[in-house]
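Tokens as discussed.
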């Protein structure tokens, strides 16, 4: 393909969740005859069952297709675009149907379908590094949403050429003109450059293919004589080991080449090179600007680092390509095997399931933990709540284990004074691990920049919700006649429980939000310990803001009082900060009627029996231990508010 170097186009499809990226990818595959009508099924590129069931993309997937395009003959396309704008679908559909092969040139289109959900943002940023352009898909019925803005800015920050596409113009509720204005208002993109398509019916697809060939830039020329390829993804295959997705920037890779990973300094020999079209097709070599995959008998996913540069062992490059920031885990929770008779085996089964899953998703972390109440388990770190939810579901499905999950927490940065008087910073993922309060200088929590798109008449309610969650107002932006975008800075700990549910409920489902962690900030944060019968229970402790600590503690004690069964003696439940008790509830003890046999006679006889009972209860309380059922832990862990 060396003579066709200028005719390579690398691009990504980006959009808000549910705006039709995967359907558009399906149409492009059909329009370029990469899949036949018989093979075509919806969301061809979403290969995981869970992706197909939830209707979302989780992993980005890269595909190469070939397309014949005649340069300069764009008059038909413009004519059909005008027809599409006026609603004349027949004229629009016929615009680019005949593939004019005389005088046409062959283009190699490498495209990556990316996830739309906020938790998988790092997948999008990785995909964009391997591209020169991006197709920004906007739903013509819903307009610009929070994630549209974020993904567009990601593409702009990497200097990519953007082609705006208005999708779903075949729907009766489509309002393409208004949405084109929103795109101009929010992103500053020329509304007349928007290509109007219907990924479902195929309207406008020929025009989109023409725009990809003409507007998107060719890959940059090689800048060094040595070979350099960027790893933008990797998956694990039981038979072939790790499959590495690469984009070649300089030089070329050939079958049998001895390669070196520049970051990890490991060497391998290439046993297979190929492209997905979307079926895997083996090739002899990959040249500059091409994307594809390689297999080199790599045993472990930990041996491959996404963002690393591959070069040749015989003639290595001097410096690496610019890589990626590794994904940061922001939400942490514990997974324990659901209790059964054979406790030990369940833990081993969970370990196997987690290790196997980490081969295909290196973006979550895990380490073993032990809890008195729930036994052995793993503390896992995730990119966000949806990521956590999906990992849990995949473990239960693919690993066949039942999981008990604790309440999600966030990571805190704690400045601790050492014995030598110096201040050291440590990261704490679990409230129980917080150091002794007397050594703590300050505690910093993660702060998010939250952007919310919503209909105007809900602004008052949503602002109150953000302010109640310790939010700081930052900006407000006009999107269209009916919609606005507001920006707040809110601590991540206030978002992860039920903020999104409350937001959706209060705006009848119309609001969309996007958040990104921008940094850490010191606040008046305290660790609240829960004492049951004067004994602290580490699994129940939590970190809260000083002003909210008493309220959160009291809510938790009320839940515990309902869940812990009554004993023969009275049980005090207390919430404490350090040595100070801030809330208390009491579970009354059972009382036997010891005066039943006393009928008549002096009252002092009854009093003597009651005193004796009270003494016995006191002694019992000092030696008695409280049995806390697992439901009590779960009830506490389930409470968001």
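Sequence:
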């Amino acid at each position: 393909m060396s003579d066709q170097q200028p005719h390579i186009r690398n691009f990504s499809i980006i959009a808000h969740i549910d705006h039709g990226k995967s359907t558009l990818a399906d149409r492009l595959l059909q329009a370029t005859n990469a899949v036949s009508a018989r093979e075509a099924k919806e969301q061809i590129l979403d290969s995981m069952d869970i992706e197909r069931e939830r209707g979302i993309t989780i992993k980005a997937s890269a595909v190469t297709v070939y397309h014949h395009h005649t340069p300069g003959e764009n008059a038909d396309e413009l004519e059909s675009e005008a027809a599409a704008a006026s609603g004349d679908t027949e004229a629009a559909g016929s615009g680019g149907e005949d593939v004019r092969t005389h005088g046409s040139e062959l283009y190699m289109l490498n495209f990556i379908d990316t996830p739309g959900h906020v938790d998988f943002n790092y997948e999008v940023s990785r995909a964009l590094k391997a591209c020169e352009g991006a197709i920004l898909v906007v739903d013509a019925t819903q307009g610009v949403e929070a994630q549209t803005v974020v993904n567009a800015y990601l593409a702009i920050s990497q200097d990519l050429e953007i082609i705006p596409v208005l999708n779903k113009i075949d729907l009766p509720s489509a309002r393409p003109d208004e949405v084109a204005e929103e795109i101009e208002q929010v992103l500053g993109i020329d509304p007349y450059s928007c290509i109007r398509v219907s990924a479902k019916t195929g309207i406008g697809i020929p025009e989109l293919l023409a725009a990809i060939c003409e507007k998107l830039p060719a890959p940059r020329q090689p800048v060094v004589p040595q070979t350099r390829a960027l790893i933008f993804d990797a998956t694990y295959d039981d038979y072939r080991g790790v499959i590495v997705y690469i984009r070649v920037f300089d030089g070329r890779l050939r079958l049998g080449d001895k390669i070196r990973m520049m970051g990890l300094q490991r060497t391998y020999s290439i046993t297979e090179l190929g492209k997905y079209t979307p079926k895997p097709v083996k090739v002899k070599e990959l040249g500059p600007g091409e994307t594809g995959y390689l297999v080199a008998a790599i045993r472990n996913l930990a041996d491959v680092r996404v963002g690393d540069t591959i070069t040749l062992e015989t003639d290595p490059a001097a410096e690496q390509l610019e890589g990626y920031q590794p994904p940061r885990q922001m939400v942490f929770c514990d997974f324990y095997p659901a209790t059964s008779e054979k406790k030990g085996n369940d833990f081993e089964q969970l370990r196997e399931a987690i290790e196997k899953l980490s081969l295909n998703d290196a973006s979550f972390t895990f380490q073993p933990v032990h809890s008195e109440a729930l036994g052995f388990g793993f503390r896992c770190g995730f990119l966000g709540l949806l990521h956590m939810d999906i990992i849990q579901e995949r473990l239960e499905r693919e690993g066949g284990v039942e999981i008990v999950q604790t309440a999600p927490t966030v990571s805190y940065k704690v400045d601790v004074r050492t014995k030598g008087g110096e201040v050291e910073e440590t990261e704490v993922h679990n409230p129980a691990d917080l150091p002794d309060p007397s050594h703590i200088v300050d505690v910093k929590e993660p702060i998010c920049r939250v952007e919310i798109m919503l209909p105007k008449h809900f602004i008052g309610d949503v602002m109150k919700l953000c302010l109640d969650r310790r939010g700081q107002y930052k900006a407000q932006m006009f999107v269209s006649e009916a919609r606005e975008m507001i920006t707040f800075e809110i601590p991540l700990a206030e978002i992860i429980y039920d903020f999104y549910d409350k937001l959706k409920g209060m705006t009848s489902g119309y609001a969309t939000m996007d958040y990104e962690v921008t940094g850490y900030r010191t606040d008046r944060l305290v660790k609240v310990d829960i004492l049951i019968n004067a004994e602290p229970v580490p699994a129940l402790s939590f970190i809260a803001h000083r002003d909210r600590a008493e309220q959160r503690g009291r809510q938790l004690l009320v839940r515990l009082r309902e869940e812990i069964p009554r004993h023969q003696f009275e049980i005090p439940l207390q919430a404490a900060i350090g040595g100070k008790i801030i809330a208390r509830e009491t579970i009354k003890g059972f009382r036997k009627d010891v005066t039943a046999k006393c009928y008549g006679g002096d009252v002092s006889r009854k009093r003597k029996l009651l005193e004796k009972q009270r003494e016995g209860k006191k002694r019992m309380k000092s030696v008695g231990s409280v049995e806390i059922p697992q439901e009590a832990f779960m009830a506490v862990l389930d409470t968001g508010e």
